[in-house]
Design a protein that fits this description.
Number of domains: 5
Helix content: 40-55%
Structural class: alpha/beta
Shape: rod-shaped
Distance between the termini: 171 Å
Strand content: 5-15%
Strand order of the largest sheet: 2-1-5-4-3
Amino acid sequence: MTLDLPTLVLVRMGADVLIALAFWAQARRYPSIRGPGWWSLASVASLLGSLGLWLRAGGGPPQAAILASLAVNASVLMVWLGLRSYLRLPLPLRLVALTMGALTLAHAGLYAVSDGLGTRFVLFSLPVLVAATLALRDLQQVDGGWQVPEFNALRLLTLFEGAVLLALAAVVVASGLVWPDVMPAFLFAFLMTKLLRAVLYAALVSLRLRRDAEQARHSMASREAEWRALVENLGAGVIVFRPDHSVVTINSAARRFLGLADQGVVHMLPVWKPLRESGQRMPRPERPFERPFERVLATGRPVSDMVLGFHQPNAPALRWALCNAYPENDVLGGLQHVVFTFVDITSLKQAQAEREVLEQHLAQSQKMEALGTLAGGVAHDFNNILAAILGNADLARQDVGAGSPAQESLHEISAAARRGRELVRQILAFSRQQPLERMPVEPATIVNETCALLRTAITPQVQLFTTIDPATPALRADATQLGQVLLNLGTNAIHALEGRSGRIEYQVRGVRHDAAELPDEVAQTCRQDGVDAVCITVADDGCGMDEATRARIFEPFFTTKAVGRGTGLGLSVVLGIVQAHGGAIEVCSGTAEGTRFSLYFPGASAMTQPASVPAVTATAGEGAPAPAEAVTMSADPVPASPEVSPMAETPATPRHILYLDDDDTLVFLVRRLLERRGYQVSAFTDQQEAIDAVRAAPERFDLLMTDYNMPGMSGLDVARAVRAISPGLPVAVASGYISDELQSEADAVGVAEVVFKTDAVEAFCEVVARLVRPAAA
């Protein structure tokens, strides 16, 4: 069979065009695979070589054959560069350029010297054999174990091409054949290998695509595993829903929050009962949107920062979560999943609730402190008024005589003033400015005396019980004020029964310093002092209180009684006295469930012995306790008759008293009181004038009595200046409220006594007689 050279050249040219287009398309489609681009350029170079051979076969000039040979050599080198690029090996472009330059010079020299077929064939075959050898080396470097079938086939094809080329060279040299005899067979052989190589390179592209796809799958699986591990270990809960409410994914945090099993994916979640931030269920019109998942389904929009409460199955505790949800759509825009995330904020809500309670306590404390400061100032001025009323009424009773009809009116004036004085004492107790005389006392004794007073006021259908633990420790308290607290609470209990039958119970017991029920402030004091606590409970089964009332019971001037039946200071006084003793109050009450007040106090040290408790006296009149806001405990008995109370005896030798007060009314009253009893009185309303009087005649005065709260210089400042002039002169300071700070400052100055101003009128002469300096011998 005779091979037609021009036909073979045309067939080769057509194959080169098809192969160039095919690899160009692959290079455009898969830019990450860099070999097809070089192979497309190699086919173009081969096409130019085939065109040169076709021109030479048609009788063209010899230069056509040289150009054809150079083009084919360039095609072989580009195929090798494409293989290295595919294998991701460095490209020796400089070496290839130098090789092509050398081949061009060699062909030019051959054309100038001789145009023999053998020499030309050697120049053509040498680059082909070198490129084949380099390709085999590269394949061995990448796949030394001959593991890849495509690489193995490429190796065999390269070896076959080299063998064919060497065989043709041997035939040309041995037989001396000429160009027209050798060229058709040569073109046919290499046309077949070219087609096989194109097929193998296309297989290499497919191999790379498969490997990349497998690597992408492994990478995706790895990322998915990492994502799942990340989601599983998140502290936030994550739940992925389908539109039919079934669950795709739920992580450990969500399981713990919802109280679900740790294994397996649940198909449906338990019923979610969301609550508003206030803890109330959402109204029915909002139910379709009460869950973030349903809201996303209904609106198709994300939901963010939604706070919901959740009741765990079989668990009474309420859990809170900050929720977010967003839709996940498929490529067509349809809803595929709803991703629901939430953060457990239960501890945050609890801390917020505790903070609100503390803020309420702080606001209450600040309110009490502000009102206490105001009360102290008001009490000072009011005491001056009451002192003037009581003193002048006393003087008027003496002036009019025992049988005068005015005695009854004067007695009523004094009684009204004393009631005002008791109100002042309540205000001072509320503001914690009433002096405390704390000493170790037995709480059982105070409770028994309080119950003895209450039994005279309760009706037969009301049962009064006391439960006293004999092991209860003593406590350090002002017995009078503690009795006032218990009597106020007992009277409130009587009012709570509303005339019905019922029971009131007083309970006294000891509480260990480490008991859980003990309030923090009392527990801390007990731990510091190394003592246990005392709990006194007053309970009734009366009408009780609702939440709103219970929140305001300690507010000053808040009362639920009818107008004129209460001032609203009773429980405020109770709170002030208890806190002044370092104690705390807990209240438990509900509508129609009764009320229970629990008072906690630090116990007294075991080294101290309880003192005797002064008798508790009701000042409400007629032997019955007054309403809770008006009940007081006092060591000062109310005169039972309008007779004049006994005064101190008139001194045999007149003593000179220096009295200082910025209130003209009191100055006038005190002068009259003391002068009527034989004292010589020098009264001043200006501090500097009083000091100048002492400086002028230090031995003239036997006692200085001064008010404490005066503008400019206080009574302590005056006492300090006077004692610097006359150290032996006794000094007394009168004040409407006496704090521990005032007492300590007075002791430091050298004041003989601090007189409680509400008692100053009735006991004034006794105080003067006790403190006045003895006359010189």
